[in-house]
Structures are given as C-alpha cells and as structure tokens.
Amino acid sequence: MTKVAMTVNGKSVSREVEGRTLLVQFLRDDLRLTGTHVGCDTSQCGACVVHVNGEAVKSCTMFAAEAEGASVTTIEAMANEDGSLNTVQQAFQDYHGLQCGFCTPGMVMSATALLKDNPKPTEQEIREYLEGNICRCTGYHNIIKAIMAASGQEIPAIAAE
Amino acid sequence: MYAFDIERPTSLTDAVTALGREEAQALGGGQTLIPALKQRLAAPSVLVSLAGIAEMKGICMNDAGLLCIGGGTTHGTVAKGAVAHYPGLADLAAHIGDPAVRNRGTIGGSLANNDPSACYPAAALASGVTIVTNTRSIAADDFFEGMFTTALEEGEIITEVKFPIPEASCYIKFEQPASRFALVGVFVAKFAEGVRVAVTGASNNGVFRWTAAETALSANFSVGALDGLSVPAQDMIADLHGTAAYRAHLVAVMAKRAVAAAK
Ligand SMILES: Cc1cc2nc3c(=O)[nH]c(=O)nc-3n(C[C@H](O)[C@H](O)[C@H](O)COP(=O)(O)OP(=O)(O)OC[C@H]3O[C@@H](n4cnc5c(N)ncnc54)[C@H](O)[C@@H]3O)c2cc1C
Ligand code: FES
Ligand code: FES
After folding, report:
1. CATH no. for residue A139?
2. Structural domain tally of chain A?
3. Could you tell me which residue ranges the FAD-binding PCMH-type domain spans (chain B) (predicted)?
C-alpha cells in the first residue's frame, strides 16, 4: 500500500491505495463518488472519463497512484453552485442527449474538455472528439445537438438523420 | 490484475535504477499496458512510471534540423506541437485512438510496444528516425524486429526520438472501426535523397518498408508510379477483420492515397 494525495473536485483527499488501484476505483469505492461510471473496463467506452489537471482521461486506464498531486474533476463537480444543471448538462436534458444515462457522465466530461479547447466546434469536430465515448441508446445525434446548443450555436440539420 | 507496486521517479537515472530490479517494468501512458495487466498478460512486481520525468517530455528542433521528441511525450502534445515542423507526423498523432487516449499515451510506449497495427512505427520507419535510449542510439531500420518485438534490451528506456523532416509526407490509415487502430496504414515520406514508404497493420512481421514502391516513387513521385505494384499476400495478417488478400490490396490503395495527399 502507498499513500496518495490529490485534489478531487476542489477538496484535498488522501488515502492508502494498492499499486493496482485504478483511478476510477479510487473515486467510486474509496471516495464514494459514483457518478463516474465503468462501462467496459477495457479503455473503449469513455463512461469513466474525468479530468486530470484539466485534461480528459479514461479513469479506468490510469492508476490512482499516477494522480498523486493532481487536480481531478468528476461529474459531481459539474453542476452550478446552487445545484442546478450547468449549461452542458442542461443542454443534454433539453435536447434529449441521454436515455438510460449510463454514458452521460463521460459524455459531459468529454464535451466540457472539447469546449474548453474549442468553444465553437463544428458537427464534424464534435463527432471526432467523441470517438472514445460510446452510447448504446441515443444514436448520438441528440448528443451532438446538445453540444452544439451548449456552445451557443445553431442546431444543424444533422447529416445522417 | 496481479498486485504490484508503483514507483514514480523524477529523473532518468532513478528510473534506470528502479527498472534494474527484478520483474520491474516501465509504465508510459498505460494505454496499452493497463489493459494488458487487466487481462493478466503481464505480471510485473513493480511498475516504474515514466510520467514524472521532465527530461523525457517535450518537442524541439535541434541544430541539425531534426525534430526531437521526448520518449514520454503524449500523442496529444505531438499532435499540437509538431504541426509547424512536421505536419504529416502531427496528423498521425492527432488520429491515434481518441482524445483521452492521446492525453495519456506516449510515443516511447507506442514504439516500445511495436503493436503490428500501431501508427507510430510507420512514421518512425518511413522517416528513418533515430531512437535514443538511456544507453545508445538505434536506427529505425534496426529497431523493429517483428510483431511486438524490438531491439530494446530489458529495462532499456526510450528517452527521445529524432525525426528527419521530409519535404512532403502523409499517413493514411484504413481504420478498424471498433479499435481505431490501423487495419492497414501507410506512411509516405519524400526526402531529397529518395522516398521511404512504411506499412503498418498489414504484415505478420509487423511494420515494414515497401521497397518496390520506394523505388518507383523515388523516380517519379506520383500516384501513377504505383500503378501495377502490389505486395505479396502470403505474409499478410488474416483475421476476422480482413483476409490476407484484402490487406495486400489495401496496402496499395492506402499508399496511393498517401502520395496523392502528401504535402
Ligand atoms: C481505445 C484505444 C485506441 C487506441 N488506438 C490506437 C491507434 O489508433 N493507433 C495506435 O498506434 N495506437 C493506439 N492505441 C494505443 C496507444 O497509442 C498507446 O498509448 C500506445 O500504444 C502505448 O503507449 P503508452 O505510453 O500508453 O505505453 P504503456 O501502455 O505504458 O506501455 C506499453 C509498453 O511499452 C513499455 N514502455 C512504455 N514507455 C516506454 C519507454 N519510454 N521506453 C521503453 N519502454 C516503454 C511498457 O513497459 C510496455 O511494455 C490505442 C489505445 C486505446 C486504449
Ligand atoms: S470504463 Fe473506462 S473506457 Fe470504458
Ligand atoms: S444514454 Fe444510454 S448509453 Fe448513452
């Protein structure tokens, strides 16, 4: 066991972990932040995406010990201070960007990372950015619309509809 | 996963010492190794994370005009940082996996792993890079020794990769849609001394140079120069994603597309 210390959603935390403890296990099991999901555990689906020092990473494919000293942000920190949904989250609701909601935490974290780098992405850029986020329900179109709306853009007639 | 310890050295010297221990293994971005550990395909007793070693990260041009990329530099950093110097390489890095994979995965990890379907080995071989380790420099032509096999010794660390910059280049991959790895990928690099063509994803022996195409393109750098050329199908990978003949066919198609788009 080794001790790790990091900042999660603005709070300092420290725990004893095994070398093999994944960041997602640390978040879900040790910190009880269960908003971050495990969809595949094989690095494919993106349900586990969180931000580490501002960058989107798959928390099932990083060890907790590698986040020593880092600042980690999860879906639990995305809502506005009064608890209402933030712009990206609200857009997912407004545009039916979720059905079962399993992929949604990862989708919101990826979308947020995209908009930070590229505040007005095109439909194609959004699709490319979400290549590592799999959704089994929505067929993606409404997710794309939600992200276009969250970035203050017109909602296009989506190509494949 | 079997149990192991993690060490996070901050200097190359400490990493080399840590890797000298029995059953120690380097951890780059973990984007290949962690899935392998989950499948219990590896059982190290200690993982030595290279992510905290500042001297192994970053991109710069050296005095000899080579683009030097630290072995611990992520795909995402190369995608942004190499655009101005070597657009063909930056574009390759920008299309590895997805953004989250690119934020963690490193060039050193990709080359050391030498997956037969990985993208970077094609760039390294076509560019004729020099791979610098903690002990020596290895030419790309001597580095790749077949699927998942390289010239690296146990515990040897890729610290830097030095890229000669071609006059024009392009990498085109036919993506395996589920994994986004290359079903077949071809990197074409046109230098003043001649053209180099490297093929990934196709061969049972891993990345290789397509010398017939190199000769034809060195004489005449045009799509038409590849007309009638093909690679033999017998060494090609055959799996549920494609037959050997299909892959052999794709090699020529991807090479033509790469020549057409090279800049
Ligand atoms: C969903 C997904 C999609 C992907 N798509 C692609 C793709 O399209 N194209 C592609 O090329 N790759 C793809 N990859 C693989 C990705 O590029 C990996 O990042 C890369 O292959 C390994 O780099 P790493 O830094 O993550 O290495 P690790 O996984 O940490 O290590 C891999 C191996 O290299 C060794 N190693 C690591 N760093 C060094 C070093 N500096 N010196 C010596 N040995 C070292 C390790 O000991 C280990 O044996 C994908 C991965 C995932 C999860
Ligand atoms: S759970 Fe991490 S990518 Fe699917
Ligand atoms: S909403 Fe169900 S997986 Fe995306």
Report:
1. 1.10.150.120
2. 2
3. 1-168
Please report the DSSP string for chain B in residue order. ----EEE--SSHHHHHHHHTSTTEEEESS-TTHHHHHHTTS---SEEEE-TT-GGG--EEE-TTS-EEEETT-BHHHHHHHTTTT-HHHHHHHHTSS-HHHHHH-BHHHHHHH--TT-SHHHHHHHHT-EEEESS-EEEHHHHB-STT-BSPPTT--EEEEEEPPPSEEEEEEEE-TTT-SEEEEEEEEEETTEEEEEEESSBTT-SEE-HHHHHHHHH--SGGGGTT----GGGB--BTTB-HHHHHHHHHHHHHHHHHH--
Residues of B in contact with A133 (CB under 8 A): 98
| Domain shared by A10 and A70, yes or no | yes
Does B10 contact A at CB distance below 8 Å?
no
| pTM exceeds 0.90, yes or no | yes
* A159 in any annotated domain: no
A33, A53, A77 - which closes a domain: A77
Ligand nearest to the CA of B15: 1
Query: Which domains does chain B possess?
Result: 5-163 (3.30.465.10), 168-261 (3.30.390.50)
> How much distance in Å is there from the Cα of A48 to the middle of ligand 2?
5
Q: How many A from CA of B109 to the centre of ligand 1? A: 4
| A38 in any annotated domain | yes
pLDDT at A30: 97
Q: Is B194 part of the contact surface with chain A (CB cutoff 8 Å)?
A: no
Mean pLDDT (10-residue bins), chain B, 263 residues? 96 97 96 97 96 97 97 98 98 97 98 97 98 98 97 97 98 90 96 98 96 98 97 94 96 98 96
Range of the domain at A96: 87-150
The residues lining ligand 2, judged by C-beta closer than 6 Å to any ligand atom, are A 38-41, 43-48, 58, 60
Last residue of a domain, one of A56, A77, A98: A77
Q: Residue A132: its chain B contacts at CB < 8 A?
A: 97-101
Give B-chain residues touching A42 at CB under 8 angstroms. Answer: 35, 38
User: CB distance A46–B98 less than 8 Å?
Assistant: yes
